[in-house]
């Protein structure tokens, strides 16, 4: 049985005090062995939050990183730094990074390799725009994103990659893809992964859905065949709501 990964992506929200208070409120959360609860926090809070979640079932992730280990890249954060402070996961290729910070499929691929070199679990985001969906280009676009993102990885690395399917038109808009539509794309993603590697490896890959996920719709999304968790923005900002999302995963096992 695949893992269920519920990841809250705070984006550029919260003060340090709010971030720490959030962790204080969710640290009693227990996940069963199938479920992982992850908070993707802004860089300045990572170190302190990693210390706060010790002895708890919550993990701390970064929202992006550079692919180089070190160098003259003003303002950037490297995988070495993240691993050094105990971060476990990193989001790579979020649509906001692709749109505002020129992240490409090629830099996503370099970052995924860099993540594995430093024992970080990559959460690789893919997804189509509304125009691509309306032009019937969703599956072709996502196939290209996945093939380039995973290029050159070993089967074991692919099995340990988390893929987040986030239709861009559903992010922060309140519009969720129907569970059937979201599952259809996640199933397609698994088939692409199977073509690149093997059915066996593809069966191990955790595929999340992201885009206006909230406590009210998570049960239906998780009840599908190929959605193994969620990458959640807005609804991960309140402790009570994040706990409900994780509990939805706990209920499944
Ligand atoms: O990383 C999270 C996604 O961008 C979804 O954000 P949202 O849940 O606010 O729509």
UniProtKB/TrEMBL annotation:
This is Triosephosphate isomerase. It is an enzyme of class 5 (isomerase). PROSITE patterns: TIM_1 (PS00171), TIM_2 (PS51440). Keywords: Cytoplasm, Gluconeogenesis, Glycolysis, Isomerase, Phosphoprotein. The modification Phosphoserine is found at residue 212. The keyword Phosphoprotein applies. The active site is at residues 94, 166. It is found in: Cytoplasm. Its EC number is 5.3.1.1. It catalyses: D-glyceraldehyde 3-phosphate = dihydroxyacetone phosphate. PANTHER family: TRIOSEPHOSPHATE ISOMERASE. Pathway: Carbohydrate biosynthesis; gluconeogenesis; Carbohydrate degradation; glycolysis; D-glyceraldehyde 3-phosphate from glycerone phosphate: step 1/1.
């Amino acid at each position: 049985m695949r893992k269920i990964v519920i990841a809250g992506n705070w984006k550029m929200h919260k003060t340090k005090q709010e971030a720490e208070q959030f962790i204080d409120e969710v640290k009693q959360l227990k996940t069963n062995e199938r479920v992982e609860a992850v908070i993707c926090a802004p860089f300045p809070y990572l170190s302190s939050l990693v210390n706060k979640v010790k002895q708890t079932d919550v993990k701390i992730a970064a929202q992006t990183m550079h692919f180089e280990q070190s160098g003259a890249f003003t303002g950037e954060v490297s995988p070495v730094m993240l691993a050094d402070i105990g971060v476990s996961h990193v989001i790579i290729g979020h649509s906001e990074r692709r749109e505002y910070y020129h992240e490409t499929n090629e830099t996503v691929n370099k970052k995924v390799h860099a993540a594995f070199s430093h024992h970080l679990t990559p959460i690789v985001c893919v997804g189509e725009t509304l125009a691509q969906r309306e032009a019937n280009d969703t599956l072709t676009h996502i196939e290209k994103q996945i093939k380039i993102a995973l290029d050159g990885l070993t089967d074991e690395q692919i099995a340990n990659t988390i893929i987040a399917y986030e239709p861009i038109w559903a992010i922060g808009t309140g519009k969720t893809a129907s569970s059937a539509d979201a599952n259809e794309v996640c199933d397609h993603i698994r088939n692409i992964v199977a073509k690149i590697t093997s059915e066996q490896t593809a069966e191990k890959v955790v595929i999340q859905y992201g885009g206006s996920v909230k406590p009210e719709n998570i049960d239906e999304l998780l009840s599908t065949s190929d959605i193994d968790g969620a990458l959640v923005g807005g609804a991960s900002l309140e402790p009570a709501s994040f706990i409900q999302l994780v509990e939805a995963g706990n209920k499944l096992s």
